[in-house]
Design goal:
- By secondary structure, the chain is mainly alpha-helical.
- The protein has 2 domains: 201 residues, Up-down Bundle (Alpha-lytic protease prodomain-like), CATH 1.20.1510.10; 79 residues, Alpha-Beta Plaits, CATH 3.30.70.
- It contains 8 helices and 3 strands; from the N terminus they run αααααααββαβ.
- Strands 1-2-3 form a 3-stranded mixed β-sheet, with helices on one face.
- The protein is elongated, with a radius of gyration of 25 Å.
Length: 292
């Protein structure tokens, strides 16, 4: 997937998020439900986060320069960390509204219309969140994928809110409305914490997944005919970029041109199977071998 497509998706996420926010605010206005207000507060975070993601993806697509010779890929992880922090702030605001509502429970106005609008907003969020997660994985964009997971968390919490409100209407238990808001705040705190932790892992130069690492090792073995061995393989990921580094041991009588041809063959195969791969190979003479 091209960087242009990723940027386009991130832009439309802002539009979709704004439309969903408008629907949820209208649902709250119609009903006066603190649970629906909590849902709308989280959607405000969604819109702000989408703006950050859009900026982060545009910056991450910039080519390497003198100040950033390895590119700007990690900015997407910063975006995801900030999004997680915003989610935690939203949870605190929701908890505050819920505590206040416990003291003054109120009968909901126009509940059917409000719940219908909230359900419509959830359907839109679910469809768009699924698209973002799928495209985010395909494009190896942590910011895009995080945005999609956030939207699906919103869908699940919105579904719980609607079910709870239907129960409150059926039983007359008005305290269920603020209770739902508290439960939603706890759920959001859990999700925000997970998002921050996973994004920090990216900032810490985590190695490639085991499946991808096995693929790298297989490609090197298959494409290194003429060399004696490879060792000290190290990998790390930064957004869409994958950095692969290892030592390649060649016979002492091999020419520079011959060893360079082997390196080119390995690099081409890795970049073909792992788009975004940045490969660094240290060629060493035979006496540096560790396993021969």
């Amino acid at each position: 997937m091209s960087a242009r497509t990723v940027r386009r998706l991130s832009f439309w996420t802002i539009i979709v998020g704004t439309a969903v926010l408008a629907l949820k605010l209208l649902a709250w206005k119609l009903t006066g439900s603190v649970a629906l207000l909590s849902d709308a507060l989280e959607s405000i975070v969604n819109v702000v986060a989408s703006l950050m993601v859009f900026y982060a993806i545009r910056l991450a697509a910039k080519p390497a320069d003198d100040d950033h010779p390895f590119g700007h890929f990690k900015v997407e992880y910063f975006s995801a960390v900030i999004e997680g922090i915003l989610i935690l702030i939203a949870a605190a605001l929701i908890a505050r509204e819920a505590i206040m509502a416990f003291n003054e429970p109120r009968i909901l106005d126009a509940p059917v219309e409000g719940i219908a609008l909230n359900l419509l907003a959830s359907v839109i969020n679910g469809a768009w969140g699924t698209l973002l997660m799928r495209m985010g994985r395909k494009a190896r964009s942590p910011a895009l994928a995080a945005d999609g997971r956030h939207l699906w968390t919103d869908v699940l919490t919105s579904g719980g809110v609607v079910l709870g409100l239907l129960l409150a209407l059926a039983t007359g238990w008005l305290w269920l409305d603020p209770l739902l808001a508290v439960i939603m705040a706890i759920s959001i705190i859990f999700h925000g914490g997970r998002l921050v932790i996973s994004s920090v892992q990216g900032l810490m130069d985590a190695a490639m997944e085991a499946e991808d690492l096995a693929l790298v090792e297989r490609i090197i073995r298959e494409e290194s005919a003429g060399a004696l061995e490879f060792h000290d393989l190290r990998t790390r990921e930064a957004g869409r970029a994958r950095f692969i580094e290892f030592h390649l041991v060649v016979p002492s009588d091999m020419t520079v041109e011959e060893s360079h041809a082997i390196c080119d063959r390995i690099e081409d195969a890795l970049e073909d199977q792992l788009p975004g791969a940045r490969v660094t190979i240290h060629v060493e003479p035979e006496f540096k071998a560790k396993h021969v």
